[in-house]
């Protein structure tokens, strides 16, 4: 199977698709003057035959060599094979790369630079993360961006999005916890900051595209619609967090490492001698970092301790504040099994009005098992909603396996999602993300969970 060396997405995928189709005699109608990325063929020799292509980066050009022939051959020779060469000039296409100081965004910039694009690196400062010792980790990350940018030879800048992040992401984060829900700030950050505020800033730099180090892929169909696909590395696929992106955002976005496995990304960085080649991946919520979650949240929201009870009304103790707990949580409850039942306890529900935390024993406690959910804030990445009653798969948490679901719409813009099999610990506030095979169709926000017709006491 052919693998393009850059994996930059739209244009090369289109070129490969063209190469694999039966050749046409009318070059002008078959090959547009510019591709989806604005790439201009500088040299083109047409040869009518089935083709296999190889892409090579030379300076600021992409060279696509398409080998054709009447009979199979292990080598290229004038007698048995013919060759079509397409040279694409990328030097006038500006791509602004969001660089975090990590290895993924570093390799993203490197691949685009090797492919000859006009690459600009930009570091986003979204949060004042100075710790109790006065050390700001963003400073270290920016220094790594500067090192990598210098190593690969691109200009780099820093932009401060602290206000935008506070208004569009962090305030949402606090509001959801106040409502007893469990938010997903990464989904909101991608929608509002990395692919909105950053895209607006990139436009000021005359960018044709932005690029991120996310593990996702995009392809453009014959109608010009961009489809988002899972990253090739199933362990790193990040389409769950990109499910709220619009068609306009995707049309301006590239994911150069989406076709790679994580170990391949590190090998590329090591081979190029990048300063971030062995840097540890960041984990967790960016504005919390290594800090204690409870302590962090209590800085912004006052804690309200209350009763901890079973769904049958048996009081089991007290909780520290509903905002500190999520559906399905086991750790931090402070209660254990008894002589009659040694199974561990889990959070199975919340009553915000009465400030009660409901708990139950057993991983598969019936109070945790849902057969459907309701969702709002629905977004479809192609701009086209699936038909009523469509069967697809969905994820309800990032690391969860896909579950078969059927979608039903309501007049108020919400939807009911029926599951093929019961699902554990559906959590209001989290994202439900829909897939058709490898394609991420979009997603929404979980509002409530149901066991058949009964709403579960989740909030």
Number of domains: 4
Average pLDDT figure: 84
How many helices? The count is 9
Roughly how much helix do the residues carry, as a percent range?
10-25%
N-to-C CA distance: 50 Å
Major beta sheet, specifics? 6 strands, antiparallel, barrel
CATH architecture of the largest domain: 3-Layer(aba) Sandwich
Strand order in space, largest sheet:
16-19-18-17-20-21
Structural class: alpha+beta
Strand segment tally: 22
CATH superfamily of the largest domain: HUPs
Q: What percentage of amino acids are in beta strands? A: 25-35%
The rough form would be described as globular
In terms of quaternary structure, the protein is single chain
Provide the gyration radius in Å.
25 Å
CATH class of the largest domain: Alpha Beta
CATH topology of the largest domain: Rossmann fold
Catalytic activity: S-sulfanyl-L-cysteinyl-[protein] + uridine(34) in tRNA + AH2 + ATP = 2-thiouridine(34) in tRNA + L-cysteinyl-[protein] + A + AMP + diphosphate + H(+)
Active site: 189 (nucleophile), 286 (cysteine persulfide intermediate)
Disulfide bonds: 189-286
EC number: 2.8.1.13
């Amino acid at each position: 199977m052919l693998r393009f060396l850059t994996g930059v997405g739209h244009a090369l995928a289109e070129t490969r698709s063209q190469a694999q189709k039966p050749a046409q005699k009318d070059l002008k109608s078959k090959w547009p003057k510019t591709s989806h990325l604005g790439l201009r063929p500088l040299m083109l020799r047409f040869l009518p035959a089935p083709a296999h292509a190889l892409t090579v980066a030379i300076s600021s050009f992409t060279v696509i060599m398409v080998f054709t022939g009447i009979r199979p051959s292990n080598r290229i020779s004038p007698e048995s094979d013919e060759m079509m060469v397409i040279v694409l000039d990328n030097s006038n296409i500006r791509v602004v790369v969001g660089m975090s100081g990590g290895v993924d965004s570093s390799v993203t910039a490197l691949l685009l630079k090797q492919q000859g694009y006009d690459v600009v690196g930009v570091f986003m400062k979204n949060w004042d993360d100075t710790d109790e010792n006065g050390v700001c980790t963003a400073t270290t990350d920016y220094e790594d961006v500067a090192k990598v940018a210098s190593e690969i030879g691109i200009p780099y800048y820093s932009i401060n999005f602290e206000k935008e992040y506070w208004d569009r992401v962090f305030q949402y984060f606090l509001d959801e916890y106040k409502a007893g829900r469990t938010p997903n700030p990464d989904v909101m950050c991608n929608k509002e900051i990395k692919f909105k505020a950053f895209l607006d800033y990139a436009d000021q730099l005359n960018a044709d595209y932005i690029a991120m180090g996310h593990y996702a892929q995009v392809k453009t169909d014959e109608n010009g619609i961009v489809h988002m696909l899972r990253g090739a590395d199933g362990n790193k696929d990040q389409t769950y967090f990109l499910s709220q992106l619009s068609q306009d955002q995707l049309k301006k976005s590239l994911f150069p490492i989406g076709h790679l496995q994580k170990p391949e990304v590190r090998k590329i960085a090591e081979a190029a001698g990048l300063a971030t080649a062995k840097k540890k991946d960041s984990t967790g919520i960016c504005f919390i970092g290594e800090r204690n979650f409870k302590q962090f949240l209590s800085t912004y929201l006052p804690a309200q301790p209350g009763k901890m009870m079973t769904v049958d009304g048996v009081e089991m103790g007290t909780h520290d504040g509903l905002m500190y707990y999520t559906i399905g949580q086991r750790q931090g409850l402070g209660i254990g099994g008894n002589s009659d039942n040694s199974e561990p306890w889990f959070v199975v529900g919340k009553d915000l009005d009465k400030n009660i935390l409901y708990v139950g024993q057993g991983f598969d406690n019936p109070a945790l098992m849902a057969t459907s959910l309701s969702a709002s804030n629905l977004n479809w990445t192609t701009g086209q909603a699936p038909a009523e009653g469509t069967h697809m798969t969905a994820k309800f948490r990032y690391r969860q396996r896909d579950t078969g679901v059927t979608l039903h719409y309501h007049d108020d813009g919400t939807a009911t999602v029926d599951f093929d099999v019961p699902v554990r610990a559906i959590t209001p506030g989290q994202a439900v993300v829909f897939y058709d095979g490898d394609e991420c169709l979009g997603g929404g926000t979980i509002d409530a969970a149901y066991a058949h017709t009964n709403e579960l006491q989740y909030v």
